[in-house]
Amino acid sequence: MKPGNDEVVRLENVKRHYLVGDETVRALDGVSFTIRRGGYWAIMGPSGSGKSTMLNILGCLDRPSEGAYWLNGENVADMGDDELSDHRLKNLGFVFQSFNLISQLTVCENIEVPMMYLGIPPHERAERAKALAERVGMGHRLRHLPAELSGGQRQRVAIARALANDPAVILADEPTGNLDSATSVQIMQMFEELYGQGKTIILVTHEPDIAEYAKSRIVLKDGRLLSLEESPVQRNVTPEMESGNA
């Protein structure tokens, strides 16, 4: 059944099994949950729990062996590579532990990359990249290269890049893993601001103090859903809020 308009992510009995020699590894083994638009979720679990596999599924970098994955109203589980790549580009913004900025590009150029793949004209890309850089407090560093920035500044640029195509979901993979404690707090405050503006955020982390910032939690163990705690507060998210224009 197709999800309602307020559901941005729905997994239905998702399984991801691998064959290693003669052994079947059940990385995900029948996981189901729904994330509503404007939610802020943390996905947690010990090493080997299925977090990385879940991240790859949610990020459209891998497909389930079985089950359905609805992303922004479309079942992406059975899409071909090109269609999956297009859906990923239009609907997901990624923030990684290691920042994943392109070293030879400036701050402005790094933010422009997703827009370039969508064919947005250069002038429009540059103007939007500048606005996003200012939004994350990096407007004064537009012409700097990543090597000239601190870890926290690089992550701010990565967040701006994740917002470039106004995605349905921001998917953050251990976003504070390479940062000191004070800088981690600053970055998590930025996610809190994005949540307040109506963005849907899924945070993958093994750190309980970082997970505390999220309003709802999913805990995985041995490829299964161990627990799910959803915030009872349902936010009424408008398109203007999702675009950060509220």
Describe this structure in words.
The protein is of the alpha/beta class and 246 residues long. The protein has one domain (39-60, 80-242): P-loop containing nucleotide triphosphate hydrolases (Rossmann fold), CATH 3.40.50.300. It is 33% helix and 27% strand. The protein has eight helices and ten strands. Strands 6-7-8-3-9-10 form a six-stranded mixed β-sheet, with helices on both faces. A four-stranded antiparallel β-sheet has the order 2-1-4-5, covered by helices on one side. Strand 9 and strand 10 form a beta hairpin. Helix 4 (122-135) crosses helix 5. The longest helix is centred in the C-terminal third of the chain and has 16 residues, at 181-196. It is globular and about 50 Å long. The two termini are 32 Å apart.
Structure characteristics:
globular, alpha/beta, 6-stranded mixed sheet, 4-stranded antiparallel sheet, 27% strand, 8 helices
